[in-house]
Amino acid sequence: MASTRLLVRIGALALVATTLTAGPVSNAQPAAKAEVKFTIALAPDGSKVVGKVKSARAGCKKNVQVGLFWKDVGSKKFIFVADDNSNRLGKYAILGPGRSDIPPGRYYVRTHTSEKCKASRSATIRVS
């Protein structure tokens, strides 16, 4: 009887020691990256492209670098032309080249991926 109790105690100590050295078992998945969406429009005076970055995660919409891409009429590919950082509300405004009106063509904006936010691209708008 005494030897049975001794074996039970040794087994319990071995179990505790194994748990302490192995550490807790975690089945936690890394947090999913937040979705990011955009609005994009030409300002009424035609001098800038404006819009808003939208996301459920605040860090994915404030102070986010937004890149503007342009495709000239008749061109085959978009090129990067300018960027801006969104404000605390997610709003951005990108001025035309040389502070003049936005030239004709097609435009979209995008952001890069970050640790907590997915990369995203807006719809394409046409400026004539």
Automatic annotation (TrEMBL):
<keyword id="KW-0732">Signal</keyword>
<protein>
    <recommendedName>
        <fullName>Ig-like domain-containing protein</fullName>
    </recommendedName>
</protein>
<feature type="signal peptide">
    <location>
        <begin position="1"/>
        <end position="22"/>
    </location>
</feature>
